[in-house]
TrEMBL record:
Species this chain originates from: Desulfocapsa sulfexigens (strain DSM 10523 / SB164P1)
Residues involved in Zn(2+) binding: 101, 104, 141, 144
Coiled coil: none
UniProt GO BP: negative regulation of DNA-templated transcription; regulation of secondary metabolite biosynthetic process
Identification of the protein by name: Fe2+/Zn2+ uptake regulation protein
Keywords: DNA-binding, Metal-binding, Repressor, Transcription, Transcription regulation, Zinc
Keyword Ribosomal protein attributed: no
Amino acid sequence: MMEEKLSKKHLEQLKQLCNEAGIKLTHQRLEIFCELIAHPGHPSAEMIHKRIHKKLPTIAIDTVYRTLATFDELGLIKKLHVMNERTLFDTNLDIHHHFICTRCKKVNDIYWSDFDNTTLPETIENMGKVESRHLEIHGICNSCLDKT
Ligand SMILES: [Zn+2]
Ligand SMILES: [Zn+2]
């Protein structure tokens, strides 16, 4: 049951954010939120749609996508644009970067505080005000390398 997976703290946070933003906490939104808490990572709207199909058989992929975009606006998850315009959503809100496997497309989190704190080259500083930095490293992950 969803109550087991969803902590009270998470639910309170969701309720409060929806309230402040003037958004109704619908059953669909709640189910999608529960799914994100139960399976953290880098899901796409398609993945979430597949997983919640049993609970919400009539939900459209567009609704899932829009709900995820709303959660992004509320700051509950982060929208990511990765290779080939694939849009994924990140449940990890800590500052981190990504290693993306070009074969299996798996996205792994990287923590690199030196990079986060380093002074950026002047050329970048001169382009405008930097608000955040996100590094995307592309390569072939170990499990794919093992298969070859
Ligand atoms: Zn791989
Ligand atoms: Zn991530």
